[in-house]
Amino acid sequence: MNITEVLRISWEAIGKNKVRSLLTMLGIIIGVAAVIMMIAVSNGTASAIASQITSLGSNLIFISPNFTRNGPQTGAEAGTGLVFTDAAAIEQQVPNVAGVSVEQGTTETVKAGAVSLSSINILGSLPDFPTVRDMKVASGSYFTQSDQDHKTKVAVLGSGLAQQLFGTADPIGQTVQVGNFYLDVVGVMAPKGMVGDVDYDARLYLPLSTVLQYYTPSQFARFLGQRVRTIYVTVSDPKKMNDTIDQITLLLEQRHKVSATAPDFTITTQQNIITTQESTTAAFRNLLAWVAGISLIVGGIGIMNIMLVSVTERTREIGLRQSVGATPNDIRWQFLSEALLLSVIGGLIGILVGVGGSWIFGAVGTMKTVVAPSSIFLAFFSAAAVGAFFGYYPANQAAQLDPIDALRHE
Questions:
Q1: Cα torsion through 41, 44, 49, 51, rounded to 10
Q2: How does DSSP assign 337-395, residue by residue?
Q3: In the chain, at which end, N or C, are there fewer CB atoms within 10 A of the end residue's CB?
Q4: What is the pTM of this model?
Q5: Residue 211 pLDDT > 80, yes or no?
Q6: How far apart are CA 365 and CA 350, in angstroms?
Q7: Residue 53 has pLDDT above 80, yes or no
Q8: Are residues 388 and 336 in the same domain?
Q9: pLDDT at 78
């Protein structure tokens, strides 16, 4: 019996019991769709996180201080931590540096007219901040190096903060009270939205020198205020990223008088963060895939169960086929091909449901979904393998029936 004839007979057998065949395929359909959708959600989450990290700027190096268990310390043993002048040294002495920005934050009450907002995040930075962090000024301008040098009382508002304080009015040229001081608004940032747990549109941006001068409450805090929590460096040539990191490391080790084995700072890149996140997401994605794969196994058990019932119901038919010359191998292939057809058709329907469901979930929900072609092939071939594995036992049972006993069966 050739393969065409086998498939024709199998298709006719499936078509005789359409409802039962559909119910049998349901486990495979759900399993394939679940694998595709869960991997799509996982990939979408990883893509969204990578996009958020990349949105912080391009070709960025992050430098942050290390702290001992007793907190930041000074002296040769523990280093000096990151200070404001480290940023200037990096910009002046390290080649392949396109820009440097320093950030130091605090919170203050901000007032404009009758509007008063408490606990607003104040970010002190350098004039290079928009370039380094890939942010744009929607109106007005960012503060200048002169503002930084002279500790000028100027402010740039996040887009959301500007709307809260001034509504539809133009904030440029207006005055806001930040804490105990009045600052002139010189610019409004373009919308940036949430990145991680930080709302960039709700921030107030000031020159770093202004923050250090006016928003540190005591002499001790003002001394610590010369420390900075993060230095951002953007490189000109990303191919030289590792060389640039090495040179920054050597420079800071010399400035802080610390050894390479016990530095008081940490250097990371966007790719480091993305790679770390991807490893976590990959583990989560694999777990989801295994959970979804269980439904494929359940679907395979359903196929085996129905095929065993089919063998019992068609025992006399099997005897007739054997009496007219069908070999045990022909019988085996006939029933195995039915199991394969059920799993393959269920797999194809599952792919349509999985891809369509992923698209709908991404379009309607808040989470991004990315359908990976590899997940489609994985789910489909897994369905086919499940059909072959669980279909073999019933097919083998049918092939081993004695022709005489089969013909006597009622």
A1: -170
A2: HHHHHHHHHHHHHHHHHHHHHHHHHHHHSSS-----HHHHHHHHHHHHHHHHHHHHHHH
A3: C
A4: 0.56
A5: yes
A6: 21
A7: no
A8: yes
A9: 43
